[in-house]
Automatic annotation (TrEMBL):
PROSITE patterns: GH16_2, PROKAR_LIPOPROTEIN. This is Glycoside hydrolase. Keywords: Hydrolase, Signal. Belongs to the glycosyl hydrolase 16 family. The keyword Cell division does not apply.
């Protein structure tokens, strides 16, 4: 009986460990989300961007935004603020002045030079590839005025947009979807202990009907939110790693150079659900 008790206890421990690793083994273990009643079963993945992509940067990534150097904050993006070493991407933000205003709404005064990159691959959830996985490890600043993000947005129209990871001047990580079923934003904030340490941010985007997708947002292997992306199906999306400044993250921002770092970024797709 004692031997049997030890065996049963061991099996119980293994079951517990397996449950804790559900996000890492989603390609081989069934995962059920109670709220959406969705199930992922034995998915077969095709690699789009490998975890080693920063070591072959020009093969997989472009500098700046798909639309140029400016966006909705006070940073103007430059290639000089983008660097890669040892498989780690660093985007640095440096204070500047006297260079005018952003060319994008809301046309803020440019206070920084910074860095942004976007993937050469385009992600499209459709009947051929109904499931996508986006993942990366990041070190993020969280001071007022810092605005690091990992996200996907419409390549030919907006919406759609899915913010896999967004910090807006605090230690709260925001996961956001636009457009949701009501035609607006879905947003969930998660407090992150020491955002400047390495954390893993992961998203599963799954076609649920002819027009919509379910989006699971995971942080450090834990499911934090499941949101609906309305009219995402068939819409090509750019994948962006972005270190913007001020704007929604508050002001004034830092007076010295700051940076965000990324490594092991992975994008994969599946023809099976």
């Amino acid at each position: 009986m004692k031997k049997l008790t030890f065996i049963m206890a061991g099996l119980g421990l293994l079951a517990c460990l397996a449950a804790c690793k559900k996000e890492q083994t989603i390609s081989t273990e069934p995962v059920t989300d109670g709220a959406a009643n969705l199930k992922t079963d034995a998915v077969s993945w095709v690699n789009v961007i490998p975890t080693t992509s920063f070591s072959s940067f020009s093969t997989y990534w472009n500098n700046l935004y798909p639309w140029g150097s400016d966006h909705n904050g006070s940073a103007r993006m430059r290639t000089q603020n983008i660097s890669v070493s040892g498989g780690v991407l660093t985007l640095s933000s440096t204070p500047t002045s006297g260079v005018g205003n952003s060319s994008k709404d809301p046309y803020l005064t440019i206070h920084y030079y910074s860095g942004t990159v976007y993937a050469k691959a385009i992600a499209t959830v459709d009947a051929s590839w109904p499931k996508w996985h986006f993942k990366g490890e990041f070190q993020n600043p969280s001071a007022t005025g810092t605005w690091p993000a990992f996200w996907a947005t419409g390549a030919s129209s907006w919406p759609p947009e899915s913010d896999f990871m967004e910090f807006k001047g605090s230690s709260t990580c925001w996961t956001n979807t636009y457009k949701n079923a009501s035609g607006g934003w879905s947003s969930v904030g998660t407090a992150i202990s020491s955002p400047s340490s390495w954390h893993t941010y992961s998203v599963y985007m799954t076609k649920t009907n002819a027009t919509d997708v379910s989006i699971e947002y995971w942080i450090d292997g834990v499911l934090k939110s499941t949101q609906t992306g309305a009219n995402f199906v068939g819409k090509p999306m750019n994948i962006i790693i972005d270190y913007q400044m001020e704007g929604a993250s508050g002001s004034p921002g830092p007076t010295t150079t700051t940076s965000m770092k990324a490594r092991n970024v992975l994008v994969e797709k599946s023809a099976t659900l």
